[in-house]
Amino acid sequence: MGVSVEEFLAMLDRLPEVSKGEGGDWVSVKVRGKGFGYLWERTETVGLKATIEEQIALVAERPEVFEPQFTAGRFGWVVVHLAKIDADELFELVTEAWCLTAPKSLVEAHESR
């Protein structure tokens, strides 16, 4: 159990048109210029876009793994502790965050593969 920073970054390469940018203490993760995640290497945590309902459910179910970050509109961002999550679950959450952010045509093209 647990995902390294390097493993998280490698996951991003499995999704189309993901870009990473340095933001000081964090790395921003975007698709076509729109953010869907952040990485804080120092704390080995990731912030991911989710629906508010999913944010609430994840935090309630496993507060040792997830914590609320903030809400914006209909989205609730969640902090994920990399050492406490398995790779398959994290990739599912990363993919969901990407799908919430990427243009519909890009999501459909990716899902059809």
From TrEMBL:
Pfam families per UniProt: YjbR
The keyword RNA-binding belongs to this UniProt entry's keyword annotation: no
Coiled coil segments of this chain: none
Domain of life: Bacteria
SUPFAM superfamilies xref list: YjbR-like
Keywords recorded for this protein, A-Z: DNA-binding
Gene Ontology MF, one: DNA binding
Protein name: MmcQ/YjbR family DNA-binding protein
Organism (species): Microbispora catharanthi
